[in-house]
Amino acid sequence: MIILVDPDPEYIEYDPSLKKEVAIKKGAQGEINIILPNGKYHVKITDKKGKTIAYAPFNEEELGTAE
Question: Domain containing 50: what range?
């Protein structure tokens, strides 16, 4: 899936194995990790190689399908 908006930096959880934080912007790749009790999606954000770089919450309309 594609992230259609920039995530709120306050809610980004970076993967602890990263040596330095990477800027996450709209257009980043991800996949739904879990559905949160408030109805948002907890999304695993990955780099171009498929490695997990962070997790962040998004509303359904903030996510799109990858082509």
Answer: 2-64
| DSSP 8-state symbol, 61 | G
Q: How many structural domains comprise the chain? A: 1
In which region does residue 51 sit, left (phi positive, over 0), alpha (psi from -120 to 50) or beta (all else)? beta
For the stretch 13-56, pLDDT in tens is 999 988 888 889 999 999 999 999 999 999 999 998 989 999 99
| Distance between CA atoms of residues 1 and 16, nearest Å | 23
pLDDT in tens, 12-25: 999 998 888 888 99
Strand partners, 64: 2
